[in-house]
Design goal:
The protein has helices at 2-17, 19-53, 73-84, 97-107, 112-116, 137-146, 157-199, 201-209, 214-251, 263-299, and strands at residues 59-63, 89-95, 126-131, 150-155. It is α+β, with helices and mostly antiparallel strands. It folds into two domains: 2-53 and 161-299, no CATH class; 59-155, Alpha-Beta Plaits (2-Layer Sandwich), CATH 3.30.70. The chain has a four-stranded antiparallel sheet with strand order 2-3-1-4.
């Protein structure tokens, strides 16, 4: 137990002696993991909105009236039955002129003058389609456009495809950023540990001379790197969590887009990032120690700095 306490005290002493360099290492981990974690949260927001857009009506086929070469109501219902039988279609329903006018009044409820200008008979009937797989929207759209009874086809496929592409790009950037910045954090921690070893090289040399093993020397520095990594990662998680909570207050003012991030998502990935920060600290310490101890072992023992009195 006394040995454990000694090793912990040594790690704390190292941190206090090299406060400036340690602060730099903590900030490096903080900035690196903040950017990576922020990219992950942003990707989650895009993914949630993509899934929300993928639910409900994907395609609207506006139908021609009989004077324009379209079908009567029975013919339109027959077309609806045909569309419902397509393998790409999950659900489809018919909206007649009266229902279309009621929908129009709801959309322009705050602009009654616009509603007064519209003749309900001029609004087209339509078939609303929900797809089983949004990626098939082009095939369904092509078939509907080719039908002479269809006046116009509207779909959200392009917008959903753009969101999906953005989500894939963010996934790639987030992964690449995590790897590059995580490696940078490991290198900086390794440099911090090497500077700490250099500052205490005489003490390490004496420990080697009295028979201390490499692992007994390593442990305080490993604890130092572990603390640096956990502090930097913890700060990164805290900042991103606060930013994600603040997004909820903005969420209500932006229609059709959700900026809220589930607490479970932040907590789950926050734990992962803190563990990654701890691992980066330990790896950085091992890298910083390995070369020094290898050189010490090959030369027999590290040189002890001597002072000469005149």
């Amino acid at each position: 137990m006394n040995r454990v306490g000694f090793l912990v005290r040594e790690a704390v002493v190292n941190l206090r002696r090299n406060a400036l360099v340690v602060t730099g290492a903590v900030l490096a981990v903080f900035i690196s993991l903040s950017l990576a974690f922020g990219a992950l949260v942003l990707n989650q927001i895009v993914r949630v909105n993509t899934l929300a857009w993928q639910e409900g009506v994907h395609i609207i086929a506006f139908l021609k009236d009989p004077p324009e070469g379209g079908l009567d109501v029975d013919g339109q219902l027959a077309l609806l039955a045909e569309v419902q039988g397509w393998s790409e279609v999950k659900n489809a329903f018919y909206v007649d002129k009266a229902a279309a006018f009621e929908e129009f009044k709801e959309i322009f409820a705050n602009e009654p003058e616009v509603v007064d200008l519209v003749n309900p008979a001029e609004l087209p009937a339509s078939i609303r389609i929900e797809l089983a797989d949004i990626d098939t929207y082009r095939d369904v759209r092509f078939r509907l456009v080719a039908n002479p009874a269809v006046r116009r086809v509207s779909s959200l496929g392009d917008q959903i495809e753009q969101l999906s592409s953005l989500s894939r790009i963010l996934n790639f950037l987030g992964l690449g950023m995590a790897v590059v910045l995580g490696f940078s954090a490991v290198v900086l921690i390794a440099n911090t540990i090497r500077m700490a070893i250099y500052a205490r090289r005489d003490e390490v040399a004496i420990m080697k001379l009295v028979g201390a093993g490499n692992w007994f020397i390593r442990v305080p520095f490993l604890l130092e790197g572990l603390i640096e990594g956990v502090l930097g990662a913890g700060l990164a998680v805290l900042v991103v969590w606060v930013a994600s909570r603040n997004l909820e207050s903005v969420d209500q003012s932006i229609p059709l887009i959700s900026l809220s991030v589930p607490v479970e998502f932040v907590v789950r990935w926050g734990v992962v990032f803190i563990l990654f920060g701890a691992l980066a600290g330990v790896l950085g310490s091992l890298l910083g120690l390995s070369r020094y101890l290898r050189e010490a072992d090959s030369s027999g023992s590290p040189p002890v700095k001597r002072t000469v009195e005149v």
